Amino acid sequence: MNQAETLASLLLQGDSAKVWENIQKQPQLSRLEVYQNLITPAMQHIGHLWETNQITVADEHLATATCDFVLSKLAYRQEKRQSNQKAMFLCLDGEQHYIGLKMVNSLFEEHGWETKYFGPSLPLEYALKTAKDWKPSVIGLSVSIVYHLPKLKEYAEAFAKLTHKPAVLLGGRLAGKYDLLPYCSDHTVILKDLPETKEWLQNNEAGGQQNAIF
Amino acid sequence: MSFEKIVNHVTEKIYERDPFLLERFGEQGKEKCREDNHHHMKHLETAYELNQSAFFTDYAVWLDGILKKHGMNTRHLIDNFEIIQAVLAEDKDSPEKAERFHLYLAEAIAVLKGEPVKGGV
Prior knowledge:
The complex is a heterodimer. By secondary structure, chain A is of the alpha/beta class. Chain A is built from 8 helices and 5 strands. Helix content of chain A is about 55%, strand content about 10%. By secondary structure, chain B is mostly helical. The model of chain B has no long low-confidence stretch (mean pLDDT about 95).
């Protein structure tokens, strides 16, 4: 059993303590590496087990709930951060796959951003209201299921019209599978995976430093 | 185009054609059949709205893999798609859309049969 399969089996047992212990066995891993090399392949393996009729929807939900708890524990800090850099993260209306988005939110927090993370399925009108009131400089969207895609354009266009001009980032399973640019606004940035997200954060920091110099 | 009406009509036709299905899977199976057909329609709608047949053909291949693991064979899915085509042919409200759905279904059927696909959009 490889590392992902072992972690998947612990997630499927719903045993968050054992999952935590398993992750802590590799203290040298960065947060990104834990997400990219351990949790993502474990959750993908769970998807494969469901597709091949080896586990049920109930098993998959238990694993997701356990994963959610462990992600919260990994990212837990006692005080809510206050920062000039603000980002909000949401899944398109109807989209229930939020684990990737939660990891992206945590990477932003790790880089010093103040964030609002809305979890699964946020209808556009509510997302738009928060975006107008709170004025985040980044809005991150996630989409994993094909039949939620028709709504993508509507979201991307609505956010592109915001007067404070936030950067719109798009991720999720489909971002790595299809060219989604035709369904976005001109300024949407597509991030295929977590390493690309990290790279975007680093470039953004480098750009910010340059602006501070000039 | 009413998906509800099409899905109900398709499900009835599937069960009419093969009464043994009701015996084997019961009412619960019929409900699942209805759910599956709602998913087919949602994927057809996505392919139509985004003008990209791959969204439907990829779904068909993925679903076929799952159904096989549940003891079905590819023929079941092809039959289901052919029945949708037949029901769509009776849809007079949105002929352009029905025609495009028909093409996506034909392309998916060809892929499931392992035939070469011409002129995919």
